[in-house]
Structure formats: C-alpha cells, structure tokens
Design brief:
It is globular and about 65 Å long. By secondary structure, the protein is α+β, with helices and mostly antiparallel strands. A six-stranded mixed sheet has the order 5-4-6-3-1-13, sandwiched between helices. It contains eleven helices and 13 strands. The protein binds alpha-D-galactopyranose (GLA). The site of alpha-D-galactopyranose (GLA) has 11 residues, from helix 5.
Length: 389
C-alpha cells in the first residue's frame, strides 16, 4: 500500500526532498463504553486497519492536503497562518486541529507540509478513523519537526485536545490513546482517571474478534454524545453532595445503590448507573480474561450491551438486531455495541468454527430485516501508530 501511496504522492507533489511515511490504526473497544469521560476503565485494542500518511516539509508556510479517499476534492491548500476550523475544510479540520494544538503548546511548526493520506477504516463506522487521523498527524509532525520530547501518550492527549477544542466533539481519551499506544495481540486496560494502563494479551486460540458494521450512522451522534456527558456530570454533582468522590468511576455498585437517590433526575440516575456498573464490569472482564475465563468475559460483554441499550440509551434498532441475532448463534461467546453508538459497529467474540455461520446467518437476516447489507471484518489486533520504514 505504502508504495502505491508514495507513487500518488510523487504524482501530486513531485518526487524531490525528504519524503516520509506513517501509519496510525483505528480501534475497537472490547468493553468499557462511555466510561472514559467518567473516570472509569476502558479496554480497547488497536486494529491493523487505519490511516496512512506520506509527508514532506515545505520551504514556505503553505499546507497542502490530499486524501486518496476523497480524490474528487483534489489538493486542499491552506497555511500555517490559517489554522481555524471551518465547515468547508471538511476532513482537513482533523490534521489542522492537531497542527493548531502543537502551536498552542509551544511546538512551533517552522514550515508548512505537503501531506497525503489514505485510510482503510470504513467511513462513519465508529472505528475511530478521526482519532487515527489525529494521531497520524501528531506522529508525522513530531518526526518531521524533531520534537522528540513528545511521547506517544502526549500525542494521544494532543489528538483529544484538538478534537474537543478544534472540532467541537467532547470525546474522552480512549480512541486516541488506543491508536497511539496500541500493541499487537494486546488490549489496553486503561484507567482514564489517571492514565495508568496495562497491556493485557488477548489470546484467543479458539475464537476470533468479529466486527459487524451496521452501516447506519444516526445523525444525533455528536449532540447526543455531548448530552450523555452532561447528564453524567449532573449525576456526579448530585452524588457529591452525599459522598466524597471525584468521578463516577470512584463508585462500586454497592456504593452507587446506597447513594443513588441523591441523583434527582431519573434519566441522569440511569446514565450514572451505566457508568458505574460498566466500569466495574470492565475491571471484572479483564480479570476474567487474565484467568482465561472467556465465557465470563463474553457474558460481561452481553451485559454491557444491555446496559448501553436500556440505561445509557445509545444503541439503535439496527444495532440491537445485529446483537440479538449474534446472541442466538451457538459459538458466539459475547456480542455488544462498540464505540460511541447510534449506529456504527458491534464487536463479537466468535468461536473459530462458528465464524462462517455467524457471517452467513447474520448477513442474510440483517438484510431481510433492515433492507441493506451489513459488513463483517474478522480483525487482528495491531500495534499503535508510528513511522514506516
Ligand atoms: C467515542 C469517544 C470515546 C468514548 C466512546 C464511548 O468513541 O470518542 O472517547 O467515549 O465514544 O465509549
């Protein structure tokens, strides 16, 4: 792929100079959903699909962007003096946001760049194509401008900051962290209250991780996401009147049950319940995985779905159909919605011998019920972002 992209780069921008290549992966979260802005735990892993970038420094302050995914848009030109978000800037708002954040943190970009990207994360699937583009841009800038003091973890934080403050999506740290810090065949058990983390090997000799793309994306994604955050914050404020906590992640299920009546709004109470229980489920699930108790891990994934569907209300009809179908198939260890919600993908752990049936049966029945096809990806867990040789 890299070769073809280099070829394309030469075609668009010419062959001369110091041209470098980078990659940043997308992610799938196994469990721990909507906990990352509640001081809870998450358990994502990096995928082997993601975004590739080829770049070269310029002599002037111009920035030229080209996406091989949106070739019709051609080269989009801007400058280091024009790092402001705009609707018409489309996808370039993500790399621009990262450049803006670098400058804001005192990492001066001394010249513009020519940048070409291409990604193989299905668009709008909820597998973090935007986080991967942010982390890719960060890795590229760090390398091109020699900011060796910036760590991969910093790049995750820079990506999140730019997403929050430049692109107006109030996301947590999970996606950028997974893209920057991923490790082959491991999921990342991350405590979002302090960014302590641990790599947990995902050894599944008898099973595969299968992602099913519902191919729907409901329009409320951004606003509903921010609503959920606000509801959790309100619940926290109420709870803090009766119990000393910093985040919802500080509560056990028992402590939540003991204090939940302090949350005055019933909807906020439900949201907080999810955040607390999901965090505890994630801790349990990682312990189960370490003990090789895959069935238990699967049960916790299923419980996570129920909670996201009923208490957090971020699922949708199409996703529930996919999960219900999956739960009926023998050999499915666990299945749930993954990512922000309101469409996107499910993640399932499926025994090797059941994978074909899974894809056949769900493929057929989903099409019958919903009217369009789902897409299936049997995925591998890959490494985090970096420079390519
Ligand atoms: C989106 C956000 C993440 C996280 C998930 C839900 O992917 O970007 O920060 O909150 O939703 O778990």
């Amino acid at each position: 792929m890299q070769k073809e992209l280099l070829q394309k780069f030469y075609e668009m921008y010419g062959e001369e100079g110091d041209i470098r290549s980078y990659f940043a992966p997308g992610r799938v979260n196994l469990i721990g959903e909507h906990t990352d802005y509640n001081g809870g735990h998450v358990f994502p892993c990096a995928l082997t699909i993601g975004t590739y970038g080829i770049a070269r420094k310029r002599e002037d302050r111009k920035i030229r962007f080209y996406s091989a995914n949106f070739s019709k848009l051609g080269v989009i030109e801007t400058s280091l003096d024009d790092l402001v978000p705009s609707e018409k800037a489309g996808w370039t708002n993500y790399p621009k946001g990262v450049m803006w954040t670098f400058e804001k943190r005192g990492y001066k970009l001394t010249s513009g760049v020519d940048f070409l990207i291409w990604g193989n994360i299905p668009n709008g699937s909820g597998l973090s194509s935007s986080a991967s583009l942010e982390v890719l841009t960060g890795v590229m800038l760090r390398d091109m401008f020699g900011f060796s003091e910036i760590t991969m973890q910093d790049l995750a934080l820079i990506g999140q900051y730019s997403e929050n403050n430049f692109n107006g999506m109030n996301c947590g740290i999970m996606d950028q962290f997974a893209s920057a810090m991923g490790k082959k065949d491991c999921a990342i058990f991350l405590d979002t209250s302090n960014l302590n983390f641990e790599y947990a090997p995902v050894k599944l000799p008898d099973a595969k991780i299968v992602i099913t793309n519902s191919k729907v994306k409901h329009s409320l994604v951004g606003s509903a996401y921010n609503d959920r955050r606000n509801e959790c914050e309100r619940a926290l404020k109420d709870l803090q009147k009766v119990v000393e906590i910093h985040t919802l992640g500080d509560l056990t299920e028992e402590a939540f049950e003991a204090h939940k009546d302090a949350i005055t709004d019933p909807v906020c109470r439900l949201r907080a319940k999810h955040a607390v229980y999901e965090n505890q489920r994630t801790i349990q699930a990682v312990a189960a995985l370490k003990d090789n108790k895959i069935e238990e891990f699967g049960q916790l994934m299923n419980a996570s779905h129920v909670s996201l569907r009923d208490d957090y209300e971020v699922s949708c009809e199409e996703i529930d159909i996919l999960v219900d179908l999956a739960w009926k198939i023998p050999g499915v260890i666990g299945s749930r919605i993954t990512g922000g919600g309101f469409g996107g993908c499910t993640v399932s752990i499926v025994k090797n011998e059941a994978v074909d049936t899974f894809i056949d049966v769900i493929g057929r029945e989903y099409k019958e019920k919903v009217g369009h096809e789902a897409e299936f990806y049997v995925v591998e867990i890959g490494d985090g972002a970096g420079k390519l040789a």
